[in-house]
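sanity check both lines:
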Amino acid sequence: MPEPTIAATASKLLFICSMNRWRSLTAERLFDHHPHYEARSAGTEPGARVRVTAGHLGWADAVFVMEKRHAERLRAKFADELRGKPLVCLRIPDHYQFQDPQLVALLRANLAPHLPLGSL
């Protein structure tokens, strides 16, 4: 049986990568002006454009990370804030620049099982 989509319970989506410059920021931009979802992004590293905080996780209904190590870092630092929230690893390596068409296509494909994206 397929995994249920997150859409039934989530409208606020948080995307996490290392530096919040390329992957997570591209994912956030995909949802600009989306009628059903609001998206934000952050990074796990000290030099990130926007570094993830407990407040980000408190705001989010669902959290998407690009790599397994991002999920591990979030669980280690923010276990309480993540409790009861879906945490999905999209398995997207750090090989892409901001808004790279291949990255956009990969994000759409990897998000599709979790969110009904419609015209995204």
